[in-house]
Amino acid sequence: MDREKYTLPKAGGIMIHTDAADALLKSRSGDAALVYICMLRMNSGMTPEEAAEVLGTKDSNRGRRALDTLRGLGLISCGSEPATEPKEELPRYSYGDIKRELENGAVFPTLVDEVQRALGRILSSEDLIKLFGIYDSLGLPPEVILQLVNYCIRLVRERYGEGRQVHMRFIEKEAYAWERAEIFTIDRAEEYIMYKESMRTSVGEYQRMLQIGGRRMSPSERAYVESWITMGFSPEAAELAYDRTVLKTGKLTWKYMDAILRGWHEKNLHTPEEIGSAGKKPSNSGPAPSANDDYERMKKMLREIKGES
């Protein structure tokens, strides 16, 4: 008898790093895996009571155990405690390793030539070691590495101007982000770049709406804004929360504004129209009379005047 095999449909949206997936599988905790997926999907933290609700129970201790499991795996943090980040450290290569690869390799020498051409300079020994680490250790294909390098060049020039040199350390840090996002094809790279550019445009619109001028947003401020964009709030919708925040606190209070937007998100209110409609109180006067109602009332009055029943 043939064994049935179940397959996944083509879908996307939530990505779990392979290290996180391996840790969850090793823990053999279905509760922890379910709570973790929900936290990724909602892009927010979770209390033990909320975790219990996700698990379909009122037992907050069960929710706490799932969260403690995730915390023990280093996948989440509690309060101000920083979450464990995957180590961003390449293996220790020597220049001898690089020299042998340059002399005998079929792909890496060509990659070096293309990267030097894109950067407009000759790579130093340290630069070559970092580039080889990205190629050899992170597993990014050469064509994806070139996409990465050109993307980094564009970022640096947009941020600091045309004359700013792009350091290999900056490219290396971005390479870790691409590896975590599992960007191993040209199509995936182009999709990621489009998403990042769209996000950067939206963040700029938010920055103008929030009247933050003369400086760049801090990482924490940007994290708030990116979470609101991910929830589906346009700057116009978020401006309503900003207005309420300033009226209530007298200034831009990030946590207060975040609480407002998360409350609307939970109610599935994301546009100015949806938010405005939800805030209107229903009238107690009942529906307005229609033209047909007026006509029937006039007919009744005429019958009464004529003495008809």
How would you portray this structure in words?
- It is a single chain.
- With 309 residues, this protein is mainly alpha-helical.
- It folds into three domains: 18-72, no CATH class; 95-184, Arc Repressor Mutant, subunit A; 194-279, Orthogonal Bundle (Arc Repressor Mutant, subunit A).
- The protein has helices spanning 18-27, 30-42, 48-54, 60-72, 95-104, 108-119, 125-136, 142-160, 168-180, 186-209, 219-231, 235-249, 254-266, 272-279, 291-306.
- The chain is extended.
- The relative contact order is 0.05.
- The model is unreliable at 80-86 (pLDDT under 50).
How big a fraction of the residues is strand?
under 5%
Quaternary structure classification: single chain
| Poorly predicted sequence stretches spanning 5 or more consecutive residues | 80-86
As a percent range, the share of helical residues equals: 55-70%
CATH class of the largest domain: Mainly Alpha
Largest sheet: none
Count structural domains: 3
Number of helices: 15
Distance between the termini: 83 Å
Average pLDDT for all residues: 83
* SSE order: HHHHHHHHHHHHHHH
Shape: extended
Tally of strands = 0
